[in-house]
Amino acid sequence: MKMISRVSVPVTSSKRMRTQRIALLVLAASTIARFCAAQAPTANLTIQLDKPAQAVSPTLYGLMTEEINYSYDGGLYAEMVRNRTFEDHGWADVGRWNIEHAGNSVATMTVDQADGPSAALEISLAITVKQADPLNPAGVRNEGYWGMAVRPNTTYKGSLYAKTDSADIGPISMALVNDNTGIPAATTSVQGLSTEWKRYEFTLTTGPVQPSADNHLLLTVGHAGKLWIDLVSLFPPTYKDRVNGNRPDLMEMMAAMHPKFLRLPGGNYLEGDQIDERFDWKNTIGPLVDRPTHRSPWNYQSSDGLGLLEFLEWSEDLHMQTVLAVYAGYSLKGDHIHPGPELTPFVQDALDEIEFATGDPSTKWGAVRAGLGHPVPFSISYVEIGNEDQFDHSGSYEGRFAQFYKAIKAKYPQLQLIATTPVHRTRPDVVDDHYYRRADEFFDDVKHYDTVDRNGPKIFVGEWATREGSPTTNMGAALGDAAWMTGMERNSDLIVMASYAPLFVNVNPGGMQWESDLIGYNAMSSYGSPSYYAQAMFGEYLGTEVPTSSQTGGGGRFFYSVTRDPAKGEVFLKLVNASSLAQPVEIDMEGASSVSSTGTLVSLSGTNDAETNTISTPTRIVPVKSTLPSTAAKFAHTVPPFSVQVIKLEAK
Ligand code: AHR
């Protein structure tokens, strides 16, 4: 038997240790007491409710999106089958697919480079079954995007293109199978295969199974023969039941941010690494079988299932404006198109794209959109010309921007055109500024826009984030974000729109290409980072007007903004305490004829900067709503350490 031996300590040394321990305890207790009692110097806020300084941009907070971190495929786009068109080779010839053989059945698979169901999908998966019988079937299985979420009593809608060398191969059995038990959660079959490519639909309906992401899709046959398959697809129920639609949980999380616009489709995803890897919108519309798919600059194949029309419908479903970014002739690895005749087809592509989105069905591209089931034009106010063109060191953006600007304004004078970096030959309506920073950098620069010339172009902060925490951001980042947002709100006469980036990350190993993201998920569930909640709070309590206000006193890490909605008689105070000390605040609302005696307090607090939410602890830091007693034209309030708070008051 193993014994634990006790070390005998001489009496003198034991006494000394006891004394030392007591001294340490006294020190710790006094530090804790000091920490608890300690406060930052009081901040005095004077708000002149009767003196509006400027209007709040009604479109201030929106969303920026692109295919990065498995945002669409393996994310928002609800498709469950990974590598459905066999373009992704992974480490093997056929990524994400494996042979499955029961008993003594024998099968092989390979990508057939010369046979596919359409001009866009020219390749397919050829499965040669040398031996199989109904009790010993053979086929292939797909692993999904880090599994497939299976829930009880749910119908999954599937489809595939298939053909065979002989109908003797029989039907294809389809099943959603648990990885750990091998037990199917749902089964069905696809009948009537022929020697011609044809599309087949099927449904898989589960019974009272345990919810789990540990599942795969299995396709098998019970006879020898050769089978080709392509565009194998399976969808769970989607947001608003859209065919080819989106994950409801992620759509609902975005809706809770109260976003006013969606900037799409990127980001670097718009540009592509090379010109022929750009977001070529004409290849992303129409039946899926006519979409060739393309490589994204984040090193994986994009299915383009979420194409231009789906982007526009996503905006529509969440009542957001679309901020449409058009490819402007520069790609990430440095290639560009010279302004002039070479650029003309790209300018025409952008005009066609705008017509596709906004033209009525009597126009060429409006008719195409109507033919795809959306006769009502989408309303667009902003078009962005390119992305981060400051990286085009050839200097061609001046000329490229001018060419796009002239052509778009000639046809659509009402559109506001956004330059991705300052240009001088043409005056853009708006310039897009990007900021990826640490929290301290945002704290130090919170007054960035206070002194910017109001006679120049408006500002779109099209990408910004405090990059602290991985895969999603932590409380320290939320504080950096909230401080920065107080500055953007105060300057929202100049800043017409702002959108955080990146929005999404699949938290599975290998899912992330860019650290510090807003919303994390796996196949089964999703969660918001502290930054997500800070933004949702700012988005919900936006207001319409910034009253004149001033601050005296307060700690160095205290930030605030104040807005109001005079029509509704509401005032919104946003208070950010990024310090470890409590922050007392004395609030004086001058010019108020009446102030409610209680307010609403929404509070997002952490214990320290590093505290965060994860996929397994998704609600450690969430906003808590309560009633704030004893409010008046003058009242005192203390903001706890590491906190973002919104106080809503009824005040006229
Ligand atoms: O948001 C991630 C990337 O950062 C975007 O694709 C790009 O525009 C920026 O550099």
Helices and strands in order, then pairings?
Layout: H1 11-37, E1 43-55, E2 61-64, E3 97-101, E4 106-112, E5 124-131, E6 138-142, E7 155-164, E8 172-178, E9 184-190, E10 198-205, E11 215-221, E12 225-235, H2 248-255, E13 261-264, H3 268-271, E14 294-295, E15 301-302, H4 308-317, E16 321-326, H5 344-358, H6 364-371, E17 380-385, H7 397-411, E18 416-419, E19 430-437, H8 439-444, E20 458-466, H9 475-490, E21 495-500, E22 504-506, E23 519-521, E24 526-528, H10 530-540, E25 545-553, E26 558-565, E27 570-577, E28 583-590, E29 599-605, E30 624-628, E31 634-639, E32 643-650
Parallel strand pairs: 1-28, 2-13, 2-21, 13-16, 16-17, 17-18, 18-19, 19-20, 20-21, 22-23
Antiparallel strand pairs: 1-25, 3-6, 4-5, 5-12, 6-11, 7-10, 7-12, 8-9, 8-11, 14-15, 23-24, 26-27, 27-32, 28-31, 29-30, 29-32
Helix pairs in contact: 5-6, 5-7, 9-10
Bound molecules: alpha-L-arabinofuranose.
Q: Would you give an account of this structure?
A:
The chain has ten helices and 32 strands. The strands form seven sheets. An eight-stranded parallel β-barrel has the order 2-13-16-17-18-19-20-21, surrounded by five helices. The longest helix is centred in the N-terminal third of the chain and has 27 residues, at 11-37. Residues 1-19 and 21-36 have low confidence and may be disordered. Helix 9 runs parallel beside helix 10 (530-540). The termini are far apart. The chain is an alpha/beta fold and 652 residues long. Residues 66, 68, 266-268, 387-388, 463, 501-502, 514 line the site of alpha-L-arabinofuranose.
